[in-house]
Design brief:
alpha+beta, 3-stranded antiparallel sheet, two-stranded antiparallel sheet
């Protein structure tokens, strides 16, 4: 089963086709935060290369570079917390995804979408991760579930 919805797949193909020279990119992360926040990490450890696209628009001083992270429906580890998941590039396809001269850039997203779902783990972390002034390795330690809030 594809990890991208039909509309997601189509939109990515349009973005790739609209670009003069599509440039795949990844965002290497060791975990992913969410509103709770949660820390997501791969079963085998290491980083998660998130699929992205970048492009350079305009000319001269008006030139700007843009970047977007590709998302799809939630994988099982993420579904209880969120309705979207960043697309994760399998390591064996990363070189081709990053190659701006790849002749199959537009079809590669379909190949990535057909890969088996990555095995991720998740645990709650402290809300301190939401403040940029906090920057230490302890931020990814397990945190207790917040107390249930009720109106009465």
């Amino acid at each position: 089963m594809s990890r991208l919805r039909g509309g997601d797949h189509a939109a990515i193909r349009v973005a790739l086709a609209a670009s003069n020279a599509p440039r795949g990119g990844t965002i290497p992360i060791e975990g992913q935060r969410h509103k709770q926040p949660w820390y997501f990490y791969p079963d085998e450890g290491g980083v998660l290369p998130l699929a992205g696209l970048w492009e350079r628009w305009g000319e001269g001083d008006a030139q700007v570079e843009t970047f977007t992270v590709l998302t799809g429906p939630p994988i099982s580890a993420v579904a209880p917390m969120h309705d979207r998941t960043p697309v994760i590039v399998p390591l064996d396809l990363m070189d081709e995804w990053l190659d701006p001269a790849s002749p199959r850039a537009a079809e590669l997203i379909g190949t990535i979408a057909q890969q088996p779902e990555p095995r991720l783990h998740a645990h709650r972390v402290s809300a301190a991760v939401n403040a940029p002034r906090h920057n230490h390795s302890g931020l990814i330690q397990h945190a207790e579930a917040p107390p249930r809030q009720t109106l009465w």
